Amino acid sequence: MKREHTHLADDGLFEYLDQELSPESRQKIESTLVECAECQERLLEIRRLFGEIESLEAIDLERDLVSAVMARVPGETGFRTLPNLSASLSLQSLVAVLILAASLPALLQQASITELAGMVQDNNRLLLETLQGGLAAVMEIVTQLRVGLEAVLSETVALQTGPIELVLILPLLISTGLLWLVGNGILLRNLSSRRR
Amino acid sequence: MDVPSDQDLVRRVRNGETQAYGEMVRRYQQSVFNVCWRVLQNRQDAEDLAQEAFIRAYERLDRFDIRLPFGPWINRIAANLSINAVNSRKTHFAIDPERDAQPSRSSTHPEAALDRSQQRRTVLEALALLPPNYRMAIELRHFQEMTYEEMAQSTGLPLNTVKSHLFRGRKMLARILKNEA
What we know:
The structure holds 2 protein chains of 2 kinds.
Chain A: H1 10-17, H2 23-35, H3 37-54, H4 66-70, H5 81-110, H6 113-133, H7 135-153, H8 157-160, H9 163-195
Chain B: H1 6-14, H2 20-40, H3 43-59, H4 70-88, H5 110-129, H6 132-143, H7 148-155, H8 159-180
Helix pairs in contact in B: 1-2, 2-3, 2-4, 2-6, 3-4, 4-6, 5-8, 6-8, 7-8
């Protein structure tokens, strides 16, 4: 005696042909198709419909779009900023590495690794809050960074001013350097992968 | 002289050689125009929108991943523009009465070409009768080969809505073609 079953709905067959079903749902549909000649016939009809749609030939364009498009694109310098951007990012990354390298010896003298980690974490939070505050705050950080960098590079100034000032400046420098490095690194990687 | 690849052309455009973009337009204008035409069903609108698609693509060329093929990328831009155009005009587009008057260039046997032309005319007329949203869904799925999820992202519609448009469009198309037969 034949087992009674419900015929497959068109929507299910659409999803089956579109390969949008989970493996389990796909398996169920295939089991029904094996058993039901009417469902098989319906699947063939839908396949024929898909074939008719997709066999539509292209129609010919009657006018050339090249001159119209080219009249609207910007001139020769449209994309020349990209190499400059890469160079600028590379330079910024190098500066960030130099900041970190220059800060390291002084930091090792001033703080244990645990203290340093705590300070960097605190300053990361502080820096992010400052950045959210607006352009004025960002400019202030840049100024501080410049002052700090000059002090570190001159090797003695910051160290001679005493541990309190150094403790304030160096974690900020490290935080900024790390953020800068990571941000620019991601940008550079994306740029180079797109352009390769 | 070797024909430059799409990748070469994109690199040249990015390096400031704007004229190389003209070759890109020459290569893809036919397919881009057809994407617009299938959705809009009007030659003039489709030509204007195809032109717009190339301008948009040029503006976004720095964001194009050069490892991927250019054709599907520009076709998707054209499809999205067509979708926006359809959505912005709530009424139906004017259907071009001469939309398939010309025979295909690839036809070599006149009788077979006539049959194919007739079949194509029938399907095109059926497509033209669909509501624009259904026609868009069919374009995105059958010609741009998007998944349901990608269709939802492109149109900004919920997943179930795009599925519904696609399924209803197919059913309506099947009914129209059955009545024509």
